[in-house]
Each structure stands twice: as structure tokens, then as C-alpha cells.
Amino acid sequence: MGDNIEVFQQLFTPSVQHTLDLVGIFFFAISGALLAVRKNFDVFGIAVLAEVTALGGGLFRDLVIGAVPPAAFTDLGYFLTPLLAALLVFFLHPEVERIQLGVNVFDAAGLGLFCVAGTTKAYEYGLGLTASVTLGLATAVGGGVLRDVLANEVPSLLRWDRDLYAVPALVGASTVVLCIHYDALNPATSTLAALAAFALRLLAMRYHWRAPRAWHRRSTAAEVPD
Amino acid sequence: MGDNIEVFQQLFTPSVQHTLDLVGIFFFAISGALLAVRKNFDVFGIAVLAEVTALGGGLFRDLVIGAVPPAAFTDLGYFLTPLLAALLVFFLHPEVERIQLGVNVFDAAGLGLFCVAGTTKAYEYGLGLTASVTLGLATAVGGGVLRDVLANEVPSLLRWDRDLYAVPALVGASTVVLCIHYDALNPATSTLAALAAFALRLLAMRYHWRAPRAWHRRSTAAEVPD
Amino acid sequence: MGDNIEVFQQLFTPSVQHTLDLVGIFFFAISGALLAVRKNFDVFGIAVLAEVTALGGGLFRDLVIGAVPPAAFTDLGYFLTPLLAALLVFFLHPEVERIQLGVNVFDAAGLGLFCVAGTTKAYEYGLGLTASVTLGLATAVGGGVLRDVLANEVPSLLRWDRDLYAVPALVGASTVVLCIHYDALNPATSTLAALAAFALRLLAMRYHWRAPRAWHRRSTAAEVPD
User: What region holds the Glycine transporter domain (chains A, B, C) (predicted)?
Assistant: First the structure.
């Protein structure tokens, strides 16, 4: 696996990869900060929800693969970027809400970047192909789940009345693993995997693609979570 | 402790232990998938809740004892079994609901198996007797708590109006630790501990055994969680 | 850093530090147990919420810095103290509620002790100054967040209509890190940092200091959580 690690580390130059990470972190943090404003949290709550949304998925991945202390606590840029997003939303949230479409587009970009980076890092740490896909997915969607749990809402990831979110990340992570399996992971294929997840998420939002609920579900409106 | 480990590893043949683990995982996953259907989640939400319910307790235990990557991410069978349960519930949930009694019986079996396996593994990793009991308990009930948190419900484990669930697991875990203390842990006593937890849970369901609430509680219906 | 560790370990004699830890754990556990009584949980739910509130923050810190098994599972006193608090609340909760002011004062003391101890331990394990402050804060407030999540409530930490809680802990943790930076951390400055957090929290409760919500927030009563 030593060779693989070497190849992976050259996927992108470190500074390019780091910049991409910060971009993804920033837009995830925006989505956390906006939910905090909607929930009427104070400035500190806005900062906490921004941090958790942006770093929660990667933190979970790092604990699982034993990469401690996690990157969220060793890279100052990872920590400060969500604070910047929180500050922006604190002062300008009506303006940020107004460009919700733009935020969603960048959140989709974050989803694409994180599922690829998470899958690659999990494989580098010795996990199998299936486990790497699972952790790539968890890296991409974990922060959003923690955000919703802290805001005391049913995770939007699990709700049937939301556009597909996990499936695009799953496709991106699976593409990475297929490339690894066929020894074809390189900057070009990595970028392709991230773009595939990005594009799928945009299409899901545009055409309101949704996943089916259980078959033969009886109508039970009373059971629908608020 | 080296001797102990050797003894423990021979408790059951690996394949027997593995089969028992998969059986417990399967029935825990069924309970997660059924709650997801009741909460109106989509097919992906059903799969996530099945995975979390089945593997969450063991994942927490493995992170605490430093067994990374956790078994949930290294054993493909552990990962695929909940998906099978989710698929079954997705297509046949009315039939599965109808045999709820049977599901509860098997969930009780999972509880017995997990509290024994969790306690044994924690002790193998060098934890003290009390800590091993605590982690055995957490292994058995942790997945269910995570399931309820993700579904945005008060964990059924904590509610006074549910039949005893933790106490049977506590009895099973304590039995294991007593056997360790008196150097009497072997396949027979392990099986006995699991059966004790299993039987206690069945009795608690049959006779609606419940734990008391705080003494002299004033009647405050308004404070009762939904 | 070796020198630093030696200095830190002499901050207080081990038995003094341990006693302070147990005092903080006890009062955090009381706050968890009282919420459990209010939520109508049974005796087991009271014990779980006491344990989680008292040990959750330190557990998270230990997992992040790789100190496994975490202190919560290796020190019997850490485990038994919350049970004692739970027992007390179980039998005497009307009396404990009546002295809520006293409980809040001691919870504030716990906050001061935990933010200092958490920051120091994180730095000892090699984290940077900013990350140490973050983990000190997480040690102090993490248990309360977990308590509220398990009780299915919006974490009181994040709500704008609660008196400042995180800011005092942040001040305490930052003071520790400033002392480290200027090579001035000793028992006296540590005590000062803990006292500063303690006093700030008392003042915040006395004068109902609160953090601002987002600027130009439109009135949207319907969106206010419960």
C-alpha cells in the first residue's frame, strides 16, 4: 500500500488540496450558520453550529481510522474558516438567505469534494474498499446530521421529502473506490468523481429527485414527523 | 492477563461467535429499520437507521477501548447484514410489523448476546471490571439510543413508561464480570449470562416490569415528554 | 514539551486535582439528574443522564487527543460520583430543586474547574494553543450538550434566551493558554483562570447577561424553537 499512499499524496499538490478543503468547509459552515439563525440561536450558537457542520464529518472519520488528533484540531485554517462563515452570516444573513440558491450550489460542491477526500483518506489508513466508501459518505454527510441533531430536528438526510443528498455522495465515493480497484486513481479521475457527485446533487435539486419510501406504506399522516 | 485472553478467545469457536454477532446485528437492524418506516424516512434513511442501530453500540465501545478501525468497518458481514435487514423491512414491513412479538424476542436475544460480547471484549482490552460492565451495557443499548436520537425521539431506554431494557443487559454484563473475577468464565457460563439477560428481558416484556421514577414525584403531566 | 508536562503535573498535587475533578463531576451530574426527573425518566434514566452530563465532555476530549481508554473508564471515582448524585436526586429531588441557586453556583464552579483542566490536558497531549482552548471549552460544556440532546431538547448552550455559559468557560480556557504562552502557568494562575470563569458565570446569572442574536433579525416568532 506504500506505493498507493505515495500516488495519493501527489493527487493534488498539498496547497491545492488544502484550498479545496477550506472551500468545502466554508460552504458547509454557511449552511450550519443559516440554520442557527433560523432557530434563533445567539452568536455563540451560530459559531458552534458552523463549526460542527463543517468539521463533524471529518472528525468522525478521523476518530474511526485512528488519525488523532483529528485534522479539525491540528489545522488552524480548518478551525478559523467556519468562524469566518459564522461572522458573515451573523451580519449579513438576509443577504445570504437571498442567495440561497448560490449557497446550495456551493454546498453541493462541498459534498463532492468531501466524499472524494474522505474516501481517499480512509483507504490510505488501511480500510477496505466498502468501508472506505462508507467513511467517504460519512465525511460528506456527517456534519449535516450533527447540525440537525443539535438543532433538535429530524436529520434532513433521512427525510423522504428532501431532494437526494446521500446518493450523489455515494456515487462520488464509489467512483473513487472503483478507480482504486482498477489502479486508475489520479488527479483527473478524482476530479471526475467529485464533479459527478456535484452534478448529480445539482440535478437532484433542479428536478426534485427523491428516494422512495417503504413499499405499500399505508397513509398515516399522524405519524409523519413534524 | 495473557492467559485470560487465550481462554476468552476459545470461549466459542470464532465462527460460532461471528454467527452469533451477525444474528444480534440482524435483529437490532430490524428494530432500526421499522422505526425509520414509522418516521416516514426514505429507503436511504431506513438503511442508515438500520446500520446505526445495529453497529452504534459496538462502534462506541471500540472507540473507547482504542480498537480502531472498529470492527464495524473491518468486517464486511457486519456492514452488509443491516442492509439485508433494511431491504427486508423496505419490501415487507407490514408483514414484519405483524410479527412484532417475534421481532421483540429476537431483539432480546441480541441484547443478551451483545452485553456478553461487549463486556468480554472490554476486559480483553485491559479495562477494569466496573468499566467492562459499563461498556458491555453501552454495547448492548448504545445503538438503540443513537437510533432514537437520529429519529428525534426521547430514547426509549430512558423513559419510565417502557419495559425494563437496560437492567437485563446489566445483569448479563455483571454475570460475565463475576465469572471473570472468580476465574470461571467459559463457554457454559458465558451462554448462561446471555440467557439470563435474554430471559429477564422476555419476562420484563411479558409482565411489563418497569423501573420506578423519582420518589415523591409531584403530578406534573405538562412536563411529561410528548 | 517534556519540561512543560512536568511543570503541569506539579500544578496541584494529584490528590488535590483529583478532588477538584470529583467536585466538578458531582455538580454536573446533579444538573443532569435534575433534568431527568423533570423529563419523567425512570431511575435508570436518571443515572444515565447524570453519567453523561458529568463525563461526556471529558470523554470527547480524551477521544480527540487519543487518551484511550478515557479517564471516565479508568477511574472508578469518576464513574461512581455521578451515581451518588443520581441517588441523591432520586430520593431528595424536591429538596435539591429548592436549592437550585446553590446547584447553579456549584455548576459554575464545575465549569471553571473543567475548562482549566481540559485546556491543560489537551496542551499536554501536544495540541496547539487554539485547539487546546477549543477542547477546554468542549470539556466544560460538552456534557451539558449531550444531556440536552439525550433529553430531546435544544441544547441550552445554543439558545439566546439563556444566560452566558460558554463565554465564561472560553475566558478561563484562554487565560490558561495565555499563561502557557508567556510561560506563566502555575497553581496560582491556574486557580485564577478557574476563578475568573466561575465569577463570570455567576455575574452572567445574576445580571442575565446574554449574547446577541444575528443582526437585523426579522421578527419570526413562529420559528422560535418550542
Answer: 19-93, 105-179
- Using omega within 30 degrees of 0 as the cis cutoff, is the peptide bond preceding C69 cis? yes
Mark yes or no for CB contact A131/B43 under 8 Å: no
Per-residue HEC secondary structure of B77-91 comes to: HHHHHHHHHHHHHHH
Distance CA C23, CA B216 (A): 27
Is the dihedral angle over the CA atoms C121, C127, C133, C137 positive or is it negative? negative
Rounded to whole angstroms, the Cα distance separating C49 from C70 reads: 18
Asked whether this complex has an ipTM greater than 0.90, the answer is no
d(CA B53, CA B59): 11
Report the C-alpha gap between C124 and C126 in whole angstroms. Answer: 5
Distances (CA, A) of A143 to A191, B87, C46, C82: 22, 26, 29, 30
Could you tell me the sign of the dihedral formed by the alpha carbons of A165, A167, A170, A176, in that order?
A: negative
Set of chain C residues whose Cβ sits within 8 Å of the Cβ of A150: 145, 149, 155, 158
Q: What is the pTM of this model?
A: 0.90
**C2-35 per-position pLDDT tens digit:** 444 444 545 667 778 888 889 999 989 999 999 9
Q: Tell me, what's the pLDDT at C8?
A: 54
- Residue A213 DSSP symbol: B
The Cα–Cα gap between A58 and A139 comes to 5
Q: Where are the domains of chain B?
A: 2-210
Number of H helices, E strands in chain C: 9, 0
Distance from CA of B223 to the nearest CA of C (A): 6
* pLDDT interval class at C141 (50, 70, 90): very high
Rounded to whole angstroms, the Cα distance separating B20 from B96 reads 21
All cell numbers assigned to A220: 398515516
Amino acid residing at C91? F
Count CB pairs under 8 A between chains A and C. Answer: 99
Chains A, B: CB pairs < 8 Å? 99
C2-9 vs C100-124: helix axis angle to the nearest 10? 150
Q: What is the rounded CA–CA span in Å between residue B31 and residue A196?
A: 34
**Strand ranges inside A118-200, DSSP E:** none
- Verify whether the Cβ–Cβ distance B43 to A135 is below 8 Å: no
pLDDT, one tens digit per residue, over C62-109 is 999 999 999 999 999 999 999 999 999 999 888 777 777 777 888 898
Q: At what angle do helices B14-38 and B76-98 cross, to 10 degrees?
A: 50
- Cell numbers for A214, please give them: 417503504
CA distance linking residue C26 with residue C31, whole number of Å = 9
Q: Check if the beta carbon of residue B194 is closer than 8 Å to that of residue B113.
A: yes
Cβ contact (<8 Å) for C167 and A76? no
Instruction: Determine the straight-line distance between the first and last CA of chain A, rounded to whole angstroms.
Output: 48
B185: DSSP letter: -
